[in-house]
Amino acid sequence: MTKLSIRNLRKSFGALEVCKGISLDLAKSELICLIGGSGSGKSTLLRCLNLLEHIDDGEILLDGEDISVPGYDPERVRRRIGMVFQSYNLFPHMSVLKNLTLAQTRIRKTPPAEAKDLAMELLLRFGLADKAETYPDKLSGGQQQRVAIARALAMEPEILLLDEITSALDPELVGEVLRVVRDLKAQGITMLLATHEMGFARSVADRVAFLSGGSLLEVAPPEKIFTQPDHEQTRQFLKRVLDPI
Amino acid sequence: MTKLSIRNLRKSFGALEVCKGISLDLAKSELICLIGGSGSGKSTLLRCLNLLEHIDDGEILLDGEDISVPGYDPERVRRRIGMVFQSYNLFPHMSVLKNLTLAQTRIRKTPPAEAKDLAMELLLRFGLADKAETYPDKLSGGQQQRVAIARALAMEPEILLLDEITSALDPELVGEVLRVVRDLKAQGITMLLATHEMGFARSVADRVAFLSGGSLLEVAPPEKIFTQPDHEQTRQFLKRVLDPI
Amino acid sequence: MASLPLRHEREGVTLSPRAAYEAALRRKSIRLAVVSSLAFAAAVVIFVPMAPGWEAVRTAFFNWDLLVETFPKLLQAFLIDLMLFAWCAPAILVLALVIALMRNISSPTLFPLKVFAIFYTDLFRSVPIILTVYIVGFGIPGLGLQAPWNSPYLWGSVALTLTYSAYLAEVYRSGIESIHKSQTSAALSLGFSQGDVMRFIILPQMVSRIMPAIMNFMVSLQKDVALLSFIGPIEVLRQANVFKALYANFTPYVGAAILFLCITIPATRFSDYLIARERARRTG
Amino acid sequence: MASLPLRHEREGVTLSPRAAYEAALRRKSIRLAVVSSLAFAAAVVIFVPMAPGWEAVRTAFFNWDLLVETFPKLLQAFLIDLMLFAWCAPAILVLALVIALMRNISSPTLFPLKVFAIFYTDLFRSVPIILTVYIVGFGIPGLGLQAPWNSPYLWGSVALTLTYSAYLAEVYRSGIESIHKSQTSAALSLGFSQGDVMRFIILPQMVSRIMPAIMNFMVSLQKDVALLSFIGPIEVLRQANVFKALYANFTPYVGAAILFLCITIPATRFSDYLIARERARRTG
Amino acid sequence: AGCADGKTMTSGVLTIATGNPAYSPWVMNDAPESGEGYEAAVALELARRLGFEKSAVAWVRTSFDEAIQPGPKNFDFNLQQFSIRPERAQAIDFSDPYYLAGKALVVRKDVAERLGSDLSAEKIRDLQFGGASGQTSAIFISKVIKPTKDVLLYEDLSDVQAAMMANQAEATVVDVPTSLFLTAVRYPDGRIVGQFAKSNDETDDKFGLLFAKGSPLKDCANKALADMKADGTLANLEATWLNKKAGIPVIDLGK
Ligand SMILES: Nc1ncnc2c1ncn2[C@@H]1O[C@H](COP(=O)(O)OP(=O)(O)OP(=O)(O)O)[C@@H](O)[C@H]1O
Ligand SMILES: Nc1ncnc2c1ncn2[C@@H]1O[C@H](COP(=O)(O)OP(=O)(O)OP(=O)(O)O)[C@@H](O)[C@H]1O
Ligand SMILES: [Mg+2]
Ligand SMILES: [Mg+2]
C-alpha cells in the first residue's frame, strides 16, 4: 500500500533548479534511504515533502490525497509527517525536556505528565537523561542531534523525514539510532532518510534512492544498488564513495 | 620537536567537569585524531586550545611558550592556530567569497586580488567555485562545511584544530578532505582532528587519542589502538563502535 | 572572549595561582573605576563653580530651599504619572504586538491587515505626538461626547497609546525578524500553527532580545505621559512647569527628575538582571 | 512558511495551473484590501460629520484656508528642523555606538568605561529631556560663554544628542547581544581582534536586525528637534504653536504633520526596501 | 441681577478660569480667590455685578490650549491677559476690553549700558529679541519692531528671562505692568529702557475676557464692564494694582 507518493516534483531557487521532476513512492512502513552528493537536493526534497518549501510543480500524495494543492492545510500534514533537520534547529530558549514536551502537550493534547514520561523515556534511550534540564546551547553537537531526533519521535508521526541524523554521532550512538529506526519500522512508520553513510544505508534501508543533481537516477534494494546498479553514474558515485582514497 | 603541548588542562562548566586534567604533546606536522563518545569533551578541548574558553587550570605551550597565562594576547595565538567548528559558524551576512577573504586581507594583510585568488583556488578544490557569490544560508549542509574548512585553510595557520570536518560530507568529498589533510601534513602543518569516523581516523592519523568522560585514556598509533589497545575501556568502546549493530 | 568568572571567589575555596591573579586583576580594575570616577566628580565640583556665571546657574537649577518647598506637590503630581503609566503601558505593549503581528502577515488573504498595519505605523509615527494628543484629546470629545466619556485622561491615554504602539510595533518587528527562519521551520514541522509558532517560539526568543529596547519605551513613556498635560491633567512635569513659571526657576524640574530616576534605575537594573540570568541559563 | 513568489508573473511566462491559482488568490486579496479600505474611509467620511460637534472640530483642526495661509511659513521653519536633524542624527548614531560599545566591554581593565556607560544611559534616559534641554541650553551658556559659543542651536543640539544617544545605545546593545556567540568565536578563531569582530561581524549583522528600531529613532528625532524651540529656535512645531495662538486654531499642526509625513514615509519605505533586499540576498 | 441667570455652566455658580500659574501683578501670589491683583479684582467685581458673591465664584485653571479647544469648556469665562485679536474670533468670543496695555522694552543690564540713551529705531532693531510664543508681544516684535536678527521664541516669560540670563537673548517686549513687576521682583538685572508709542491699530494689546463661541453670558459681561468703566471702577482698580507708567521714556519706531 502506498503511503506517500511523490509525482514529478519540481523546485527551483531562482535560476537554480534543485528538484528536476522527482517521482518516488513509499509503501507503508517502508524505509527508503536517500543518497547522493552534497548539494544534490536531498534536504530540499525533504523540506518540500513537509510543505516547508513552496513547490513549483508536481504532486505529493499522502494516503492518496494531494497535499500540495495550494490552500491545503499544512498543519494537518505536518502532524502526520515528522522531520529531523540536518542542522537540528532546537529551540534555544527551552530546556531539552521542554523541547520534547511542548509540541506533545500543545498539539497532541497529551497530558503534561504523560508527555514528560515519554520525553524522559526517549532521553534515557539516547543517554541524555541527565541533560533534561539543560538548554540546547550548552549541549555538544551529538547531544543536540539526539535531542532533535527525540523531539520528532515524541510526536509519534506516521511518516518520518530524517536528514543526516547520524552525522554528529559516534558509531556507538549510530548503532543505537539504527536500533530505534528498526523499532519504528516494526511499528509501521514510513521513513525517508537522507544519509551520507553508505554502511548505514545498506544495513537499514528497504530501498535506496540515488539522487544526482536534482534527479532521481535510480531506486533499488540496497543489495542491488551497491552491487549491480543500473546506471553508469550510480556505479561511478558508489565506486568513488566506497573506496574514496 | 614538540609544537603544541597540553599539560594537565582542566575545564568545568559549573559543576560539570569536562576536561579532567588532559595532557598531550603534538609534534610539528603531526596529526592526532581525537576520538571518543558524544559529549566526551572533544569540542571543548579544541576550543580551550584556541583560547576561546577560559581554562581553570593547566598549561598550553605553543613552541614552548605558555599561551594560557592570563593576559597573554590571544590574537597572536589565534593567528597561528586555525580552527574549523563543528557547527561551521559561517558569517551569514557575507558571500562565501567574502567569508574566505576578509580575514586574509584584514589580518594577514594579503592584497585583495591575491586573497581572492587563494579563495577561488580553495573553492575550486572543494567543488564550490559556482557558489562564490552565494550567501551561507543558501548552501546545503555539506557546502557550508566545505566553506568552513576553506575559510580556515585560507589563513595558512601553523596548527589546525578540526572539529568533525567531514560529518556533513558525502564519502566522495571525505576522500577529497583526506587528500587535503595529507597535503597539509606534508606542508608541515600540525593538526588535531576530532572525529567520529574511525575509518577516517585510521587512514589519516599519526596517532589516535581516546577521550572518555573528560580524561585522555590512551594515545597511540592507529594500528595499535585499533588492534591492541592498552585500556579495557578503549577496547570496549572500539568494539561497540566498529561493530555497532 | 570568555569573561572571567567570579564563581571561585564566592565559593571561598583556596585559589589556584591563575584564579588569584585574575582576582587581583579584577580588584585592581574596580579600584581604578572608583578612583577615576571620584577624580572626575572632584574635577566637576572644583572647576565648574569657578565659572563666572556659576552662582546664577546654581540658583536657577539647584536651589535647595525651592526643591524642599516644591517637592511634596511634585510627588503628589507624580502619582498621576504613575497612574497614567499603569494603564497606558500594558495597552501599548499589547496594541504594538497586534500591529507587529499584522505587519508580519505573509498570507495573501490577510494582506489587507498588513496594509493597515503599515499605514498605522506610518501615520502615527509621522504625525507629531502633540497633534495626536490635540486631535484625539480635544477633537474626539469635541464631537459631542458627554462626561465621563470626554475625560482628558481617557482620550489623552488613547492618543499616547496610539503613537507609542506605532513605534513599539517596529521594535517588535525587528525582534521578530531577527529570529532565524530555521526556528520557524522546526516548529512548523512539529505541527504548530502559525499562531503557536509566534507565541511559543518567536515571541519568547524575541522578547529577551529586544528587552533593552522595550525598557527604552517604558522609560520614555513614563515621561511622555506629560504630554497629556497639554489637554489638562496636571502631572509632575506640568507641575514643575507651573512652579518654574511661578518662581522663574528650573529647580522643580530637578525635583521631577529625581522622582523619575527613583523609578527608572531600579527598573532598568532589574530587567538587566533578568536578561543576564536568562542568558546564563541558556549559554552558561 | 514560504511566501508566494511574484516572479512568474513578472517574467510573463505562461502560467502553470498552480501559479495561475496563486496569482488569482493574490489578485483577490488585493481587491479585498482596496475595497475594505475604501469602505472604512467611506464610513469615516459619512458618519463622523454626523456628530453634533463636527463643525467645530472641523474648523479647529481642518481649516483649509488657514492651512494654505500658514503653510509657506511652516515650510520655511521646517528647514530649521531639517538642518538640526542633519547634524544631530549622525552625532547621535555615532555617540550611541560608542556608549553601546563601552557598555559591552567585558575586559576587567576597561571596567570603568562600562560603569560610565551604564551611568550615562541611566542618567540621560531618566532625566526628562526638557530638563536636559534647559540645563544644557540655558545652564552651560549661563556659566559665562560668549557668542557664538552660547548659541541655543549648538547647546540644544548637544542636549538632544546626549538624550537620544542614551536611548539608542540601548537599542544597539540589544542588537549586539542578539548575535549568537558562535559568530564571535568564529571570528576570534580567525585572529580578528575584539574591535574587528565588532566592526566586521557583529555590527553589520546587528544593523540589519535593528534597522526598523533605528528608523524609529530617526522618525522621532525629526520631531523632537522641536524641543530646541524651548530655548529659542523657531522650528516648524514652534511656528505651528505661534499660529495656533494667533488664530486659536490647531490647523497649523496639521500642516506641520503633512511636512513630516512627506519625509517619514519615503524614508521608512526605502529602509524597508533595503532590508528586504538584503534579506532576499541572504536567504532567498 | 437676572441677566446671567441660567447662563452659567452650573446654576448659581460663576466659574472663572485663569492661568496656571497666574502671574503678578494680574493675580497676586497665584491666589485669585483672594481678589488681589488686577485681574482677580476685576473678575470678582464683575461677578458681583452679575449677581455672584465671592462665595459663588469657582476658580479653575486652564492652559491656552484648553481655552481654545473645540469641545465644551469648563469655565464661564477665562481671563489671563488674552489679547483681543480678530484672527481668533472664529474659534472663541471676546468681551470688550478690560485693559489697554502699553508695551515696554526690557533689556539686559549690559545691553542697557551699551544703548545708553540712544533709543533709535536702528539700534533697537539690531538687538537679539526673545519673546514668549503665542503672546501678543511676540507678534509685536516681529510685526512692528521688525528686528534684523531672527527672533527667539520661548514657552513662557520665565524661559525668556532664562535666555536673557544665559546671554542668548538681549531684549524682550512685555506689557508695561508685567515689565515693572519683572524688573522689580523677578529679574533685577533687567532694565526697562522705554515704552512704545501706541499705534492705535491691531498691534495694540487690548485684554478681554474669553468666552466659548456664542456664549450667552458675553452680553451681560459687556454690559457690566461698560458700567465699571463708566463709574470709574476699572480706573480705580488699575491704580490700585498696576503701578504707574510714568517716567518710562517713549520709543518712537517711526513708520
Ligand atoms: N557552555 C556549556 N555549558 C555547560 N555545559 C557545556 C557547555 N558546552 C559543553 N558542555 C557540556 O560539556 C560536555 C562536553 O561537550 P563537548 O561539546 O566538548 O563534547 P564533544 O566531545 O565535542 O561531543 P560531540 O561529539 O557530541 O560533539 C557535554 O556534556 C556538554 O553538554
Ligand atoms: N534557500 C536557498 N536559496 C538558494 N539556493 C539554495 C537554497 N537552499 C539550498 N539551495 C541550493 O540547493 C542545492 C541543494 O541543496 P540541499 O540542501 O537540498 O542539498 P543536500 O543534498 O541536502 O546537500 P548536503 O548533503 O550537503 O546537505 C544546493 O546547491 C544549495 O546551494
Ligand atoms: Mg542536506
Ligand atoms: Mg563536539
Automatic annotation (TrEMBL), chains A, B:
PROSITE patterns: ABC_TRANSPORTER_1, ABC_TRANSPORTER_2. It is a peripheral membrane protein. Its main location: membrane. It is found in: Cell membrane. Residues 4-238 form the ABC transporter domain. Keywords: Amino-acid transport, ATP-binding, Cell membrane, Membrane, Nucleotide-binding, Transport. The keyword Membrane applies. It comes from the Bacteria. It holds the Pfam family ABC_tran. GO terms for molecular function: ABC-type amino acid transporter activity; ATP binding; ATP hydrolysis activity. GO terms for cellular component: plasma membrane. Belongs to the ABC transporter superfamily. This is Amino acid ABC transporter ATP-binding protein.
Automatic annotation (TrEMBL), chains C, D:
Keywords: Amino-acid transport, Cell membrane, Membrane, Transmembrane, Transmembrane helix, Transport. Part of the binding-protein-dependent transport system for glutamine; probably responsible for the translocation of the substrate across the membrane. The keyword Cell membrane applies. GO terms for biological process: amino acid transport. PANTHER family: GLUTAMINE TRANSPORT SYSTEM PERMEASE PROTEIN GLNP, MEMBRANE COMPONENT OF AMINO ACID ABC TRANSPORTER. PROSITE patterns: ABC_TM1. NCBIfam families: HEQRo_perm_3TM. One of its GO terms (cellular component) is ATP-binding cassette (ABC) transporter complex. This is Amino acid ABC transporter permease. It comes from Rhizobium setariae.
